[in-house]
Amino acid sequence: MAEKEVVETSEAEIAVHWQEEDYVYPSPEFIAQAWMTDKSIYDQFSLENFPNCYKKYADLLDWDEYWHTILDTGDAPCWKWFVGGKLNASYNCIDRHLAKNKNKTAIHFVPEPFEDKYEHITYQELYVRVNEFAALLRDFAGLKAGDRVTLHMPMVPELPITMLACARLGVIHSQVFGGFSGTACADRIVDSQSRILITMDSYYRSGSLLDHKQNADVALKNAEKNGQKVDKVLVWQRYPGKASSPTEMVSGRDYFVNEVLKDYYGKRVDPVSMPAEAPLFLMYTSGTTGKPKGCQHSIGGYLSYVTATSKYVQDIHPEDVYWCMADIGWITGHSYIVYGPLSLGASTVVYEGVPTFPDAGRPWKIAQDLDVNIFHTAPTAIRALRKIGPDEPAKYTYNFKHMTTVGEPIEPEVWKWYHKVVGKGQAIIVDTWWQTETGGFLCSTLPAITPMKPGSAGPGLPGIHPIIYDEEGKEVKKGSSKAGNICIQNPWPGAFQTIWGDRQRFVDTYYARYCKDPNSKRWQDWPYLTGDAAVEAPDGYYRILGRIDDVINVSGHRLGTKEIESAALTVNEVAEAAVVPVAHEIKGIEPDLYISLKPGFDASAELAQKISNTICDEIGKIAKPRTVWIVTDMPKTRSGKIMRRVLGAISNKKDVGDVTTLANPEIVTQIQEMVRN
Ligand code: PRX
């Protein structure tokens, strides 16, 4: 008998489909002050006006040499934007603001400990610190344009300073989320061939000063084992001049930045004029295999796109205090804490710690202290703050005019709480849907133009033209509210250029599926596959259901189920591993791990713990499974493929469907009982 096609379990499959909600309208006061109020903007950015419409975005930047070709499609689907142009990202984020705004705060830093003082770094101070560190990177670390450097840093101002110092030299930075393990950092060092690692000795998380230096030692050992030797480790100190980590420095390899920096005081480095299409940074993200992908973002296209969306969607004005509570280690932080806001000359907040330390009033206290009026966070944080401290926002005097939600679908219930309680019924909300790969927002309402709809991201932004395809490649009827695979029809400047060192994987993963002609040089033939399922309502608003592939969003952190499985398989006793997404009240999604053991080994609580610990060591605590279920066998098809769909249904307490065609249907009831009990 022919085997039925195996459908893996995905986020989209377990998604709860909620009803379309009514519109919520922005206040006239908000509309009166917004940057973008011209409804014809959608026409200006229609497909007929593509790609020339994006000149408006490029013109938000200062160019050393103006570009001659807006979009070069000759190397499809590796699009090149603003070809012929030259610029420097650090100059655009710092120097160009000095004449008028050198005394303005660029970065407000909020340390996690309550007793530590806030720091307010002006544009002038940022200029000085970035220049000095750039001089150190060039003259002490020997870095030059085009080199890659790995950063494994926490949420401190030294992180944007490091990124901007790299950008000043044309050095490509690759920041690894601080919560990732040393092993995960090593993989990224190897893939990007970094000779230099920049880290910090320690940082605060939930009230504890964590030893972060130890991760660098693990990273270097593993990187070297896999063929990449790191020459120098530059270690920022959480408290300059004070030892905050018990991990020893390795002589001749590890250097405290503040000690070396003394030789570079007062040094200035001319920003290196870089081609628009040169890479600005790599951001590793999870995909369908165990190996993370280095998404390569360009200088000109990326910076213009995040600048424009910070202006028109975040609606940041010069007098605003803007706080995005994401981590700079993820794309949200790169685009909407660092590059977008600083390119606009805004004041951006960097908060070191967790939102619930020491209690769920912390974000609102910070907002009150700094008079934050634009706030940006993820549904997972909103759900947690709502659950733990529903009455906290009312205790603080702050006024948000604008709030963002990003990273996961937000339930209308949670949206309404965010609006009513956090936004005090006044703030507008933008639900921005996008990805590491896309550099900036794809779908969102335009704050003063399109009304909000709880639980729905909204229409494609001007210049972004989504299309939903079914499995066969037929377009799902527009506005039909039928689910399908959401793609983007056209390129846009913020889109990543390729996967670092793996063009074939780039093409296969994002463009092969719905490509109309693999030899075509026309962008019209290369729709971009996002990997999400979505529905489009009759009004053109998109509701995102979740991932259709082996990627899961745990508390807004993107992880690959295959990455977690590979980590589990490094445990000697483990024969097979299967990860499935489980719906979770706060985190949105949680990974559940099923394990079968090699012959001769028995299940035990200790072994389950050991597997869980290994995953934390290999990837980081964010990947810790909800439960490690050690089963006697996995449900399998007759050709031996693990039926993750069945495991997913069991974990989510859903109907497993017809399992009679499995090779071992009896195992399903056994596992169901185990999970139920
Ligand atoms: O599934 C979508 C979800 O997050 C994925 C991208 O994750 P990452 O690359 O880590 O970037 C996160 C920050 C942009 C998407 O494929 N996602 C992102 N934003 C939303 C969302 N799902 C629903 N609504 C959103 N606003």
Overall geometry comes to: globular
- The N- and C-terminal alpha carbons lie at a distance of 36 Å
Strand content: 15-25%
Continuous helix count: 20
Small molecules bound in the structure, each named once: adenosine-5'-monophosphate-propyl ester
Instruction: Count every beta strand, where a strand is a DSSP E run of 2 or more residues.
Output: 30
Radius of gyration: 24 Å
The biggest beta sheet is recorded as: 8 strands, mixed
Helix percentage range? 25-40%
Q: Please, what is the average pLDDT?
A: 96
Low-confidence stretches are 1-7
Strand order of the largest sheet: 12-11-8-6-7-14-15-23
Broad structural category = alpha/beta
Q: What can you tell me about this protein's structure?
A:
The chain is of the alpha/beta class. 29% of the residues lie in helices and 22% in strands. The chain is built from 20 helices and 30 strands. The chain has an eight-stranded mixed beta sheet, sandwiched between helices. Helix 12 links the parallel strand 16 and strand 17 (347-351). Helix 5 (89-101) runs antiparallel to helix 6 and helix 19 packs parallel to helix 20 (666-676). The radius of gyration is 24 Å and the shape is globular. Mean pLDDT is 96; it is low at 1-7. It binds adenosine-5'-monophosphate-propyl ester (PRX). Adenosine-5'-monophosphate-propyl ester binds at residues 285, 330-332, 406-409, 431-436, 457, 530-532, 544, 546-547, 553, 558.
